[in-house]
Fold this protein.
Amino acid sequence: MVAGLAAQGSTPGLVYVDGDADLGTPDTTDSGVLDTMGMTHLLGDGVPALARLGPRHPLLPADHIALLGFDPAEPSTEHWGRLASHRLHATPVAAVRSDPEAAAAAALAHLGARTDSVLVHFDVDVLDTGAFPLANFPHFNGLTVDQAEAVLARLCASPAFAGLVVTEANPDHDPEGGLMEALVRMLGRVLGPALGPALGDGGTA
Ligand SMILES: [Mn+2]
């Protein structure tokens, strides 16, 4: 989505709502999971074949990114080094929990002067796994669904809002279907104002 907006001549910003910072590299991974390296390659680091997939390199300047909700215990020393050297705007999960709307507003303010559209990445693993075990990677100090809704509602209400990516919603973790339904209803409420009355009641999404 970042590449698509950039190819259209837009200057997108990205708010990365995720339980992780995803600053791994193929060279140093233990898991081999590509999803843990996404931020690295957006920033132009890592493997050139991935970092140069888009219409420009780096695909995103570091100051066009805001990380929201990652668990500060997760990044390795190497990942913290990358986060610091790029001077990423980064709000760990405890700060988001204490004031979700303010954290979202600060992320938008950071991007606002530099970008003309805002993409929102929402990894379900930013939610507390004990209460909402829908993601593949557990985080036991994550957000409540209400806190995530407050964050997403603020972000998606931005006039610059251009799209929402939802990742890691794994139906295998939800045999009764209740978690997926709660997620879809929440997303319906969040996106309703942007998409119009069809989704506005949160119940028909
Ligand atoms: Mn994640």
Remarks:
- The beta strands are 12-17, 65-68, 89-91, 117-123, 161-167.
- The mean pLDDT is 93.
- Residues 12-22+89-144+161-192 form one domain.
